## 1
Amino acid sequence: MRWEPARATAATPYEQLPLLTALGRGATNHCPACGVGRVFDGYLKVVPECAECGAPLGALRADDAPPYFTIFLVGHLLVPIVFWVETRWHPPMWLHMALWLPLFAIACTLILRPVKGAVVGWMLRLGFAGQEHHGGGLENVPPRPAQPPSGPAAPGPEGAARGPALAERDPAAPTW
Ligand SMILES: [Zn+2]
């Protein structure tokens, strides 16, 4: 089965994966779309396309989301333990540092990759297909037509001033 982006806006997307399936596949380094191919080429580098189904995994830009979720998870996992150890034994600060800093680093290193895989799966599930970087980007926005200088004088009727501008809009132009 070849992966296909959901081109329809809402009615009939190609095949809507269950969210947990997409997250689980991504977290275990399996392509969220087919479950067979790999997500990562190396520790964190995402393959450009799934070798099995061709899903454009490399175009899914997870950006800062994986570090954010990783910090969130590791913090909630370890900070309570830090507080518990402090209140229970009151160890010296150097011992805290010697213990927790490496532990936080190791935990983040271990968790970052599955979290990033899950984020890639989540993005695919949400319908991201990399199109937001190829075709919908600012580089393709047509230049604005030259506006006549609008001085403070001649305040025309509200509707008349805005009507033609709306009518002249290129329907293919983005709507922001
Ligand atoms: Zn695949």
## 2
Amino acid sequence: MRSLRPNKVKSRKSAKAAAVKAFNRYIVLRDKRCVTCDKTEHLTCSHLISVTAGDKLRFTEINAHCQCRGCNFKHEYKPEDYTRWFLQHYGVDEYEQLCLLKKEIRKYTTEDFRTIATRYKLECEALSE
Ligand SMILES: [Zn+2]
């Protein structure tokens, strides 16, 4: 198997960074407030199920909601609040669907990241109007 050339690795990294930025901004614009404490300041995109299991979870809208910095940080060691909120809003079936995505290891291509970035930049523009 051939390895990726350094410039290819670099463009993959920047494509991913652009996708993450556009997606996260979209989630904040969509929700507008922290889903667990209702604050409207220092908003971040917070993933219910950790994205360490793969990019699929990172870019699944139902796995991402707006939380303030404090709640996002708290979610790391006390996931109950956000999980309870999710279950109340979406139900246990959706939660189980998300858990299944953990097993779906999917590696996104540079092209996938570019598509995601373009899509969410447009979504952000639509929401900012
Ligand atoms: Zn909060």
## 3
Amino acid sequence: MDSHKEQIITNLIKIEDALARLYTRFSKKSNFTAPVKKFWAAIAGEEKLHSNIMDKVCQAVHEEKATVSVDLRIEKLKEFISKLNEILKKASSENLSEAEAYSIGAKIEVELDEGGFTGLIHTTDEKLNKLLKLVENDTKKHRMMLVNYSRGIR
Ligand SMILES: [Fe+2]
């Protein structure tokens, strides 16, 4: 058991959960069109999957089932979480437009990708490594989609 690693991974789980909750909220906005709601529901599902993957990694660390390396400083993570909380405050506005939602999502995914948080965990467990790679690729994909959508590019 490595409590420092577990602390970092637990924070990553919290981030993925927060994103899943935010995007789920976007998927239920009554002023959004059906396809836009569907888009957010799909992306929320992916964040939920990421949270489950991180959960598995955390368990593997806890049970010492795999060698996991975490090249991530807790300070950097905390910095991101406080930025995220600021963004989440803005996102709680009731009459948010579709464009505003895209730009909020883009801001988050850019920060997340640039922090490289999802690419800094490695493990000797092949299965887990593949799952972590999926999280990394999804985050890059989310970044690209949301940045484009926020600029009106489809
Ligand atoms: Fe994402």
